[in-house]
Amino acid sequence: MSKFLITSLPRSGSLFLAINLNLDKCWTVKHEPDPNTFGQPRKRFHQNHYGEVNPQLCRFAADINVDQYGFIFRDPVACFISFINWNIDFNKFKKEKPLNLKSQIELRVLRWEICAKAIGRITQSRSPVIIDFEKMVSDREYLDRIAKHFGIKYIDPKDFIFQQVHHREWQKYKTIEDFGENVAKRIDVVDNEIRQHLKDANWI
What we know:
Shape: globular
Helix content: 40-55%
CATH architecture: 3-Layer(aba) Sandwich
Mean pLDDT: 89
Number of domains: 1
Distance between the termini: 17 Å
Strand order of the largest sheet: 2-3-1-4-5-6
CATH superfamily: P-loop containing nucleotide triphosphate hydrolases
CATH class: Alpha Beta
Low-confidence stretches: none
Order of helices and strands: EHEHEEHHEHHHE
């Protein structure tokens, strides 16, 4: 086992996991190495002892051949709220004028809907192991089990880095109802669809 891909919805702790798995000097584990073009991922995965924790590849994971697949599960509703709040904050630092907020939200809803379908493809064709977000960010032993599952053996659990990444104190949206009835219903459908895809999956 020398190549793996772990994907997720955005805002599911993917950077946190990549940072920790990359502590093993025998492995190269990257997080979204080329988010703009996807960096021709099939070429990247020709390397040995190479892994990615990459939400950007959620839609394409079923088409990428690696030895092991994983999916980080965090409550899809919580991910959506966090992602919108993060994008609002991030846009403050962008030079170009962003899309208006309504258009941004619509695009993110569509992305969640597309990802839900992609997760169905991944679970049907690639049998990923499912990683519990809440345990991953709070339990060193659980994080060590994740590493060992993907063949990463030479990290002392005491060296794992437990700190929040891309944390935002300010939040415009606190509940899914804050987005209005239409968005709330669509994200609820996505939430149910993803949970249905994962109900028979293997969890670490």
